[in-house]
Inverse folding.
C-alpha cells in the first residue's frame, strides 16, 4: 500500500512539473514573439557617414542628436521628437521651439535660435527607412535625398 501511495505522489509531482514547465515555455515564447513584432527597429546609436552627427533613438518619443565640434563651438546635443511607423517603414522627426531655445541658451549667445533651427531644420521631416547589416538608410520622401548611418 505504501508503494502505491509513493507511485501516486510521483505521478502527481511529474504532472505538476510538466504543467508548470509548459506554462513557462508558453509565456517565454509569447514574450519573444511580442518583442519581435512590437520592438522599435531603429533603437540604438547611429553615426552619420558624412559628418560627426550621431543619432541615439531610445524607446520613447525623443531621439538625441549629437553634433561634434559645430563651427569650433563645441559639441551640440539636441532632442527631437520622433515617430516610427513600422508598417510603412517611416521615421518622422520634429524639432520643438522650446528645444531650439534651450540649445541656444546653453551656448551663452554664441548660437542663436535661428542658427539652431537652420542646423537641425534639414533633419526635420518624414523619411523612409531601410536597415541592412547594421546600416540605416533614411530617404527623404519629398526629394529622395539619402542619409546613411552606421550602427555603433
Amino acid at each position: 500500500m505504501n508503494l502505491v501511495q509513493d507511485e501516486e505522489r510521483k505521478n502527481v509531482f511529474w504532472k505538476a512539473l510538466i504543467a508548470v514547465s509548459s506554462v513557462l515555455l508558453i509565456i517565454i515564447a509569447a514574450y519573444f514573439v511580442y518583442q519581435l513584432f512590437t520592438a522599435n527597429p531603429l533603437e540604438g546609436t547611429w553615426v552619420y557617414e558624412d559628418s560627426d552627427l550621431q543619432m541615439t533613438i531610445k524607446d520613447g518619443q525623443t531621439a538625441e542628436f549629437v553634433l561634434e565640434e559645430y563651427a569650433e563651438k563645441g559639441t551640440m546635443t539636441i532632442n527631437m521628437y520622433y515617430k516610427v511607423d513600422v508598417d510603412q517603414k517611416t521615421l518622422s522627426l520634429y524639432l520643438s521651439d522650446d528645444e531650439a531655445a534651450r540649445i541656444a541658451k546653453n551656448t551663452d549667445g554664441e548660437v542663436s535660435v535661428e542658427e539652431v533651427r537652420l542646423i537641425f531644420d534639414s533633419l526635420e521631416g518624414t523619411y523612409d527607412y531601410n536597415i541592412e547589416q547594421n546600416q540605416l538608410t533614411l530617404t527623404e520622401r519629398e526629394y529622395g535625398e539619402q542619409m546613411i548611418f552606421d550602427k555603433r
About this structure: The first helix runs from residue 2 to 38. Residues 32 and 126 are 30 Å apart (CA to CA).
